[in-house]
Amino acid sequence: MVELGLPELTTEQIETLCQTTEEAARKAVLSKVSSKMIDTLDISIEAEGSKPVNVTVEINLVLTKEAKGVDAEALVKEATSQAQKASENYLRKLK
Q: pTM of the prediction?
């Protein structure tokens, strides 16, 4: 992630950052597959540090048998990328 020269984040800003990042990941997954095709979707967001802020996104996705043609690994990579972009956009707005 790019260092944005931000002031130290408040607890509320960190919570909003994590929520925004998680929502982006969830939205990315659900834009590609129906929730009925998802057996497990666990999204973990961790924000550490203050200068720079490091945001870690972990997604555990298990699809049902009905989602045969879907590449879950590629979907997780795309969702992680979208989540990282959302976190960067949120942090840029705070600058």
A: 0.87
